[in-house]
């Protein structure tokens, strides 16, 4: 009778272990995406602050692929503001996802501990 119980515990343990590894990888990916979005946000903010010191009648060009398009200062400023806003929204979404995934890892660890404790008590 001990063999079936051990097989069940082994199967559940391996499933929980796979879930933990998968979740930890997703958390790392979310961290990398948050870092990248933070860099994009900082770049847009720095560019925007440098643009404020420029005169209003200056010609500004936006890089698109391998070419540059003449844009007004207001248009480029609006694009940078939108870029910052979307990056901020994505960062918030990723942080919520990360919290959920970390909670999932914690629950998986708790389940593994409970299984080990129940096995020791039997």
List the helices and strands and how they pair.
Elements: H1 2-52, E1 60-64, E2 67-71, H2 73-121
Antiparallel strand pairs: 1-2
Helix pairs in contact: 1-2
Describe the structure.
The chain is mainly alpha-helical. Helix 1 runs antiparallel to helix 2 (about 75-120). The protein has helices at about 1-50, 75-120; strands at about 60-65, 65-70. The model has no long low-confidence stretch (mean pLDDT about 90). The longest helix has about 50 residues, at about 1-50. It has 2 helices and 2 strands; from the N terminus they run αββα. A two-stranded antiparallel ribbon has the order 1-2.
Radius of gyration: 25 Å
- Number of beta-strand segments: 2
Number of helices: 2
Low-confidence segments: none
Overall spatial form: rod-shaped
Protein structure class: mainly alpha
Share of residues in helices: over 70%
Quote the distance from N terminus to C terminus. 12 Å
Could you give the order of the helices and strands?
A: HEEH
User: Could you report the average pLDDT, rounded to the nearest whole number?
Assistant: 88
The major pleated sheet works out as:
2 strands, antiparallel
Please state how the strands of the largest beta sheet are arranged side by side: 1-2
Strand content: 5-15%
Task: Record keyword descriptors for this entry.
two-stranded antiparallel sheet, rod-shaped, 122 residues, 82% helix, mainly alpha, 2 helices, single chain
Short overview:
The chain is mainly α.
């Amino acid at each position: 009778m001990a063999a079936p119980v051990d097989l069940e515990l082994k199967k559940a343990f391996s499933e929980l272990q796979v879930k933990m590894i998968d979740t930890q990888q997703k958390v790392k990916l979310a961290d990398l995406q948050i870092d990248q979005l933070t860099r994009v946000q900082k770049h847009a903010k720095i560019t925007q602050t440098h643009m404020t010191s420029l005169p209003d009648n200056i010609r500004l060009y936006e890089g698109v692929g391998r070419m540059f398009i003449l844009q007004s200062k207001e248009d480029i400023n609006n694009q940078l503001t939108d870029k910052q806003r979307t990056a901020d929204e994505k960062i918030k979404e990723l942080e919520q996802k990360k919290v959920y995934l970390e909670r999932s890892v914690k629950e998986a660890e708790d389940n593994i501990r409970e299984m080990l404790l129940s096995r020791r008590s039997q």
